[in-house]
Write the structure tokens for this entry.
Amino acid sequence: VDADKPNYLNYHERLVKLVKVNGVIVYDNTLWYGSVAKSENSVPEILKEARTSLLKFNKALADDPQYILETNVYPQEPEPLKEIRAVTASHPQFHMGTAPDAGQMMEMLLKLTGAKKTIEVGVYTGYSLLLTALTIPEDGKIVAIDRNREYYEIGRPVIEKAGVEHKIDFIESDAIAALDKLLEDHDNEGSFDYAFVDADKPNYLNYHERLVKLVKVNGVIVYDNTLWYGSVAKSENSVPEILKEGRTSLLKFNKALADDPQVKISMAPLGDGITICRRA
Ligand code: SAM
Ligand code: CA
């Protein structure tokens, strides 16, 4: 939909009836030049009318992540995911949990591709793992790799309560070793529908090298934190010291992905940036 904004709600009312379950509707211009995230009196007169329409229409997508979370993500976030965020909130590394807005896109990708057999590299307490387990079919499988089982144990009761633990094969291991082990069995080559990577950033390229072999053609690999707090788009000397190492890894990784003929990519500025790859 890319027509008159005051009618977006009218179009939507009709389109949700015309489009099948699991079908997609895309609305253009929902940020309206960024004005939906600004106060009304700071917005030029010419934008105001459509801003009002779009605020009403989407209560959604703007360049303020809190706005997106509160109006789009949290209202649709499944209860078990809220629970796993709650049990993680008091953990010292709570910030490592996948951003719920990025998670929402991952759920969309999993559903749209009908993913059944998946891999996760970097589990922590299990937000993205639980999201995947809740989204794939009853007979779906997730190979979940993390070198630290203690973190996984924090979220495991929530996963168990949600009734999806049977879909998870948790492997406590260094991720390169675990992926190499999977590759030893040639039946695993090109057999996975989807992979999500959210572990140590200096190894992203090592994971990519292995995952493009494990994921099937047209399968999806999602890499988290590819914007690294926005630092990849800033000059090195304007970036805090603590971000520099990760920034260097991700700059190299992002460039390598863009140059890799094995994948087609889309970097979505959700959470801390996710790069979505489709194996070409
Ligand atoms: N996706 C998780 C979530 O939604 O909560 C967050 C993952 S957290 C950012 C990164 C995880 O990667 C940590 O649990 C850490 O133990 C794991 N990790 C880091 N380096 C690793 C490696 N070389 N091999 C296996 N796991 C690793
Ligand atoms: Ca992350």
Notes: The chain is about 40% helix and 15% strand.
